[in-house]
Design brief:
By secondary structure, the chain is of the alpha+beta class. The protein has four helices and nine strands. The strands form two sheets. It has a seven-stranded antiparallel beta sheet. A two-stranded parallel ribbon has the order 3-9. α1 crosses α4.
Length: 154
């Protein structure tokens, strides 16, 4: 089993970080390991989103838990499984993000070196993606928006 963890303070409010993490169909736009991801447009727990990953392998990706400050995901293809957590802590107008993932399966051992540093790369891409959202016209605007998702709340 391979485990990686990275922590970074993003100069992006938690609302915008959650917008990126809870937009399943946009995942291939900022995670180059995924070529395609299909399924509901809104984040939904325990729904299998069909994926095609680098190398042409197919499998499923899912949200396993969605809470205000924690989002858990998992994906698998034949011979490989990843479980991941994103912890979001508001911090001085930004977000302290902890990203940890675990890999299991025969391909995980073979690909261990290829995944070195990937937690940090994901935080880089998350920062770039979340930074694209425009600032609200007034400070209270973020409190008037909600992120829609279906499924159970953890």
């Amino acid at each position: 089993m391979t485990v990686q963890k990275a922590i970074r303070l993003l100069n992006v409010p938690p609302y915008d970080v959650r917008r990126v993490l809870l937009d399943p169909r946009a995942l291939p736009a900022w995670n180059p390991a995924f070529h395609t991801l299909d399924g509901p447009a809104h984040a939904t727990t325990d729904v299998a989103y069909p994926i095609t990953v680098r190398g042409g392998l197919t499998g499923n990706w899912e949200y396993t838990a969605i809470a205000d400050q924690r989002i858990d995901t998992a994906w698998h293809v034949p011979g490989f499984r990843e479980t991941a957590v994103w912890l979001l802590e508001p911090h001085d107008g930004g977000t302290l993000v902890t990203h940890e993932f675990r890999h299991a399966g025969p391909l995980a051992g073979i690909l261990r070196q290829a995944f070195r540093g990937v937690a940090e790369l994901r935080l880089d891409r998350l920062t770039q993606r979340a930074s694209r959202f425009e600032a609200p016209a007034f400070a209270g605007a973020r409190n008037e928006h909600t992120i829609e998702y279906q499924g159970r709340r953890s």
